[in-house]
Design brief:
Elements (H helix, E strand, L loop, with lengths): L4 H17 L3 H6 L14 E3 L6 E3 L3 E2 L8 H14 L3 E3 L7 H9 L7 E6 L4 H14 L5 E9 L2 H9 L4 H11 L2 E8 L2 H10 L4 E5 L2 H7 L3 H9 L3 E5 L3 E4 L3 H6 L5 E3 L3 H12 L5 E3 L4 H10 L8 H10 L9
Parallel strand pairs: 3-4, 4-5, 5-6, 6-7, 7-8, 8-9, 9-12
Antiparallel strand pairs: 1-2, 10-11
Helix pairs in contact: 3-4, 5-7, 6-8, 8-10
Length: 324
């Protein structure tokens, strides 16, 4: 049967999109359909670096359930699991998010990947915060525990990785089975690169955002090193436009300290760009509506073509990127 050119190009496009969303066919085949659906759809999953764990390319951030009624938090988590989301991220600094996420996630705990963080840089402080998080989240272990928000090399990286630093708690907790993997989140290239040189981390959480890239290549060297070490890469700010410009922006999206992208078509292009940088999973903004938009858009993402890349680059003109 002769295949028309348009049909052939459509086949190529579909194949490229599948390869993009499911870069390794083994976990496309092994990813389980969403539970309870009459027509289950596989949510795209990728391997989280050296951990070998297959996780959804979109995570549910705990900020989504911050300040939510317990019943609503339970509904959101159940909805996420049913949709195929199996990566959940939270931190003690997210208000009451741990208290809301723990009970809501408990029925599904064995089937999901749970990540938490600490801003403590000393051994004792990190130990106390870890045990508090375990209690609030109603779990006996965390799949991933991360140094949260390292920015300054001396105050954050050297302090946490030095003698008496938080990393000692991490290593001991891993030996005890309280955590499985060790990672960090960073907001500066210098801090991230120093951390990766001084300790063998499993994962990195870092801003991977088109505006930051076209402004200063903010993520380039960090991602190169992370990939070299086969680390799982967790992207933040994939659907961010720029720094907040107006007070009403904060009133509209109180859980965002930046201006998010809320137009679905442009959000899809922005998310597609981030997914194309070799990341494993993206954590959307903490607003419920924006998180749900990301879940809806992610399976539709495809490698950005030339015109979309040009559109993204041109869109950065006049913006104030959140990181430079």
């Amino acid at each position: 049967m002769k295949c028309e050119r348009r049909e052939f190009l459509g086949i190529l496009s579909t194949a490229a999109t599948k390869a993009f969303l499911f870069p390794n066919s083994s976990y496309a085949m092994s990813s389980k359909p969403a539970v309870g659906r009459k027509n289950p759809v596989q949510f795209p999953k990728r391997t989280l670096g050296k951990t070998g764990k297959n996780v959804s390319i979109i995570a549910m951030g705990g900020i989504v359930v911050k300040d939510a009624e317990p019943e609503h938090a339970a509904e959101l988590v159940a909805e996420a699991v049913e949709s195929g989301i199996n990566y959940f991220d939270v931190a003690p600094t997210y208000g009451d998010a741990e208290l809301k996420l723990g009970p809501a996630l408990k029925p599904y705990r064995k089937g999901v990947f749970l990540a938490c963080k600490t801003t403590k840089r000393d051994r004792a402080g990190a130990k106390e915060e870890l045990h508090n998080s375990l209690k609030r989240l109603q779990t006996d272990h965390l799949d991933l525990y991360q140094l949260h928000g390292i920015t300054d090399v001396e105050k954050d990286v050297k302090a946490a990785l030095g003698k008496g630093g938080a990393i000692e708690t991490f290593v001991e907790a891993r030996r005890q089975g309280l955590i499985r993997y060790i990672g960090f989140s960073a907001h500066s290239a210098e801090a991230a690169l120093t951390a990766m040189r001084e300790f063998e981390f499993d994962t990195i959480m870092y801003p991977v955002n088109f505006a930051c890239h076209y402004n200063s290549n903010f993520e380039t060297n960090v991602l190169i090193e992370a990939k070299k070490q086969n680390m799982g890469i967790i992207a933040i700010k994939a659907i961010a436009r720029q720094r907040q410009q107006k007070k009403e922006d904060r009133q509209r999206y109180p859980k965002c300290w930046y201006e998010p992208i809320d137009e679905p078509d442009f959000a899809r292009k922005s998310l597609s760009w981030s997914l194309a940088q070799g990341i494993t999973v993206a954590i959307p903004p903490g607003e419920e509506s924006l998180y749900k938009m990301a879940v809806e858009l992610a399976p539709k993402c495809a490698p950005p073509d030339g015109s979309e890349l040009l559109e993204l680059e041109q869109a950065t003109a006049g913006l104030e990127p959140i990181f430079t």
